[in-house]
Amino acid sequence: MTDNKNQDRRRHPRWPIEKPVKVRDRTTGRYLAGQSLDASWSGIRLRFTNPTNLRPGQTVDVSLPDDAQRGFLRSEALIPAAVVRVDNHDTIALRLGIDTPQRQAA
């Protein structure tokens, strides 16, 4: 029998990555500034400068800096994501690339 406490239940490995991030709260339309902490193929963990009212289950849009570091992605290139965990109102985990009506129509 294996000890499940010591096994990582994640489907994909996580890599440390520290980049500025903006998240658009679809409920309010406001952008929240933050910093990525780590990422995997399917998710990202972020820390915000100020506490957030985001809750698990909410859908948000994520904007990351482009490769050329010229700024953030344009609004039409935002990445849809679902909030899966909130810690201390300033750190959240997101599942990236969720299906939305706009993505399904494409």
Automatic annotation (TrEMBL):
What InterPro entries does the record point to? PilZ_domain
Specify the domain of life of the species encoding this protein. Bacteria
Which Pfam families does the entry link to? PilZ
MF term (GO), any: cyclic-di-GMP binding
* Domain PilZ residue range list: 8-102
Instruction: State the name under which the record lists this protein.
Output: PilZ domain protein
The organism encoding this protein is Mucisphaera calidilacus
